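Anyone have tokens for HAT C-terminal dimerisation domain-containing protein? Sequence:
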Amino acid sequence: MAINSFIYTKSALVNMLREFTHHRELIRPAKTRFATAFLTLSRIRNQKANLHTMFISQKWITSKYYKDPNGRRIASYVLMPSFWNNVICSLRVAGPLVHVLRLVDGEKKPLMGYIYEAMDRAKEPIAKSFKRNVCRYQQFYDIIDKRWDVQLHQPLHAAAYYLNPDFYYKNPGIETDEEVSLGLYKCIERMVKTETDQDKIGDQLESYRNAEGFFGFPMAIRQRSIKSPAAWWGAYGKHTPELQAFAIRVLSLTCSSSGCERNWSVFEHLHSKKRNRLEQQRLNDLVFVKYNRALRRRYELRDKIDPISLNEIDESNEWLVGSFDGEGENNENDYVFSEADGLTYKDVANASGAEEPYYSTRRSSRASAGSSKVQGKHASSGSSSKKRLIDEVIYEKDDDEEEEVDFVEDPNHISEEDDFVNLDDDDDEEEEE
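Reply: yep, here.
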């Protein structure tokens, strides 16, 4: 966010960026767009070499932003090897989840029978990215499980997972999974009105479990993973009519991951300045009608239903090259120009102080004395409760006068490095804005 906002609020920097990236823009973060934080990070990762070149170029050094404190801070981010390690870490964790959300967001194919399995498969590449070290990826699993259990998981997902023949017959553990079985019977109780039909469905589940009747035909076995689950039940569930009707009803449901986003857009369109006196109930009714008309239009234009493949979830990080935490590729040892020059980005980071803690600044009065007085001032402040850095940074002004800037560490100040690690905190977002 800091890099985007700093560059795109200054037209000169935007032109400089386009020159080095060959007119490829950085994606701007937004609140109501789909996965923009992930897309922004992936674009920044793709433009790593160009951003490096830009912030060590002569054009940047001679610009007025080079001496600006914010400019120095942004340059330190780009030149900081740990920053790129964190970018790769974030992309590897979020990549499989974004793939699942894109799969769910289709609204044209009945995805209900695949969500449960897709979420389980999305966790696997995350663990693989951390070499299956539980201590390193458990915190991400906790975040995913909390969101899944509280907001996303519904009995319909479990029931559709149970009724998907491709997953059910390949994984015998589904039958003993308490959460899946509980979701199935909750759906039966909620969606089937009469107790007689509920009892019939309970009896007919035995045929499904044991692959009896049509379920055991060689053609039915071959097409478990070829046909869509709803079409499979329509073709081979005729000897269990009540269970067939229930399964088709559940497995034919479509899903969406951005209904709230679209509702916000509809509300914004309807609740304009001319309609700001609409009653809440009437506004809700208008949104309901408009959004469902859009759903009907999309349904009428739906593509041909075909089976859903979840095999690509493990390969969802196709744009990610390199690694983090010192594994595999080492970002610090990349050469800036060529191997013959021997200059690496680690040398640049050390020379520019990119990895050093960033301190808040306090402008002192213009230095009227020589360097001996500056050293004397440091010696006299040794007993002070505030610490000063040994190396003073001197900026050259346009009129060839020198001005001294002291870097002071406030005991109550959180360093920029710590602040950077928690960019997603609300306070930090407000500070960056």
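The longest helix spans residues 81-104.
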